[in-house]
């Protein structure tokens, strides 16, 4: 006698208990503290903050611990947490020209006011496994010199002074908020940048790479890449002025791209832009390349059918939380729809005989 | 001004919304709601505002109801706008500039105003209603027939209406065909 | 969902914050006013993945009152794991009464089925929808399909169905079979088997459809005219397996085919577990 499968609730509870045990691992090994994750896996924390769209290193570290290091799962935890938080207000735009930089490089000029600062980068490290870290991860103190509170102007500003690079028309229009309104197409640049900023690093990287390989090539120079902290200020209506409510670490990338000019416009360089939470430079550079590729229409370029030019394709598929949810939902039971297909196939076979 | 709002917002607004949803899904049915005590407005109009309006919605308030303005601002945070930009409008029928409210765009017919019409009374008598949500037909004491008949001809564009009297409300979506009884 | 058990009071009633609920409620009212039209809404990340019923969960959360009795089914069954998970979510966050009996429920959230028992006035059926756009697999671009709905340009859909007939002798769509609502909007009824399509029309219950990832809500008010697309010479047919239920004997219900041994023996049982049990008890 057939008995329908019962006990879904018990199965779920037991599976979750098993998951909790696996997450902890061998109890003989010391438990990982979220402070350790925050300090020693900081780049994972940064990615979770960037794609989770929430600047909170402690919560990102917790999410990484809870998700057993599955970063998309951690991003999901942060997104689900942030989405129902009350909105008390909006900050005024951060001024990245006033960034306290720990890293600042330009590929377009050998040197520039403010200098080139390599900062804590993997660049020029030899990718050799450091077996010493298996035993002892202590690091010698890095050499440092007394801070010079230097003014670090944007590189593109120098090109702008001579009219050699396009100027984005300033606007006081409040940008639309992707997290509060449904995506509407076509999207403006502010909305595209929001989508790219929280989009999956791997997806944006792949698209950016495709533009370099000729799918809507628009040869990009890294005009400037800077990483550092920026003050976040908020207007307090009762006070009548803005006060600093904290600071965030940001990565900003501005690319300088070719543009031939047109009948009405003299040749000038164009820009791509990337801005992300934390030290996430692969993402910020990728974002700038894809931003530039998506601007083909406003710059009067040809649509060559490249994926990175296709706004609807890019924006509809960049979000890894949407993507992973829908991808993984095919694990759920589909036996009712499958049954209807089964019957259809049988009937069509009968009809064919 | 600070009073007359929901005391248990999540539960009261849930119950109120169900009444509003049921009213819109079954045009002509009359529902009783509670929980708002607004100045210058009916309880039902106040309940609808508390349930549907917030900082992201723009309202148009008929001038004779201006005594409700501060209460609305305090309890919902909604902004006031011209009729052309209003998502929600409140007023007695003859105070509403019906032709000026947005009826939606052909590609986004949902971007249309919802009008809350304050009525002296609300009964299941008067013009005859047919259409989605109505099994056979219904009757509702609408303030007139012609304007609602015209509204339905613009489908899928059009305005949607709530009618409020005291603590009672009914609704009329753009799909309802209205004829003189 | 593997977060430590939290006290209900840590969450707002029915989980969502009030701003989010108001936004969904405004969308729901417009959806009811324009039957079959997909209203965009700012779907939130829910504590379960997109594609696992987040649209349905948000619609249910925006409709639920403390007096409701909730039923959740997946594939027609109350005991499938995701139905269990969603039911538990609302028990925890809204402290709502739950039931497996269709007749006792005021709100039924469903994935892929419409219950066999006739629904009644006052009930709400909430569908979980993966791809709300019926034209999506013919035209992947939202900008294009929006235009097609605006202009009532549904020729592409008819061509597709007609090609099916030319190729297979019949329309080769067995579930998510497209319908036309009140003679205007072509609508995806969610991946219910086409056996369930006739129940969409003139149903006394209010039917709400939520697509979380795709950020769309749509609705069928009670007693709305819903027609499955077809051709005069190939009329729509609500088909099912040509068997009776091997447990309750019903000959008019949608059946699951169950393989019972490794020699390929099979039996057919009602997919609606409550309906089957009710018939056995009668």
Summarize this structure as a short list of keywords or feature phrases:
heterotrimer; A: 353 residues; alpha+beta; four-stranded antiparallel β-sheet; 12 helices; globular; disordered N terminus; B: 181 residues; alpha/beta; Rossmann fold; three-stranded antiparallel β-sheet
Description:
The complex is a heterotrimer of chains A (353), B (181) and C (282). Chain A is α+β, with helices and mostly antiparallel strands and 353 residues long. Chain A is built from twelve helices and four strands. A four-stranded antiparallel β-sheet of chain A has the order 1-2-3-4. With 181 residues, chain B is of the alpha/beta class. Helices cover 24% and strands 20% of the residues of chain B. In chain B, the strands form two sheets. A seven-stranded mixed β-sheet of chain B has the order 1-9-8-5-4-2-3. A three-stranded antiparallel β-sheet of chain B has the order 7-6-10. The longest helix of chain B is centred in the N-terminal third of the chain and has 17 residues, at 9-25. The model of chain B has no long low-confidence stretch (mean pLDDT 97). Chain C is of the alpha/beta class and 282 residues long. In chain C, the strands form three sheets. In chain C, strands 1-9-8-5-4-2-3 form a seven-stranded mixed β-sheet. Chain C has a three-stranded antiparallel β-sheet with strand order 7-6-10, with no helix packed on it. In chain C, a hairpin with a 3-residue loop joins strand 6 (179-181) and strand 7. The longest helix of chain C is centred in the N-terminal third of the chain and has 16 residues, at 18-33. Chains in contact: A-C, B-C. Chains A and C meet through helix 1, helix 5, helix 11 and helix 12 of A and helix 1, helix 3 and strand 11 of C.
Fold blueprint:
The complex is a heterotrimer of chains A (353), B (181) and C (282).
Chain A: H1 8-24, H2 34-40, H3 42-52, H4 57-66, H5 71-82, E1 100-105, H6 155-161, H7 189-198, H8 201-212, E2 220-236, E3 241-257, E4 270-277, H9 281-294, H10 311-317, H11 320-328, H12 335-352
Antiparallel strand pairs in A: 1-2, 2-3, 3-4
Chain B: H1 9-25, E1 31-32, H2 43-52, E2 58-61, H3 69-76, E3 79-80, E4 88-92, E5 114-118, E6 128-130, E7 138-139, H4 146-153, E8 160-165, E9 168-172, E10 177-179
Helix pairs in contact in B: 1-2
Chain C: H1 18-33, E1 39-40, H2 54-63, E2 69-74, H3 81-94, E3 97-98, E4 107-111, E5 124-128, H4 142-150, H5 155-168, E6 179-181, E7 185-187, E8 206-211, E9 216-220, E10 226-228, E11 255-259, E12 266-270, H6 273-281
Parallel strand pairs in C: 2-3, 2-4, 4-5, 5-8
Antiparallel strand pairs in C: 1-9, 6-7, 6-10, 8-9, 11-12
Helix pairs in contact in C: 1-2
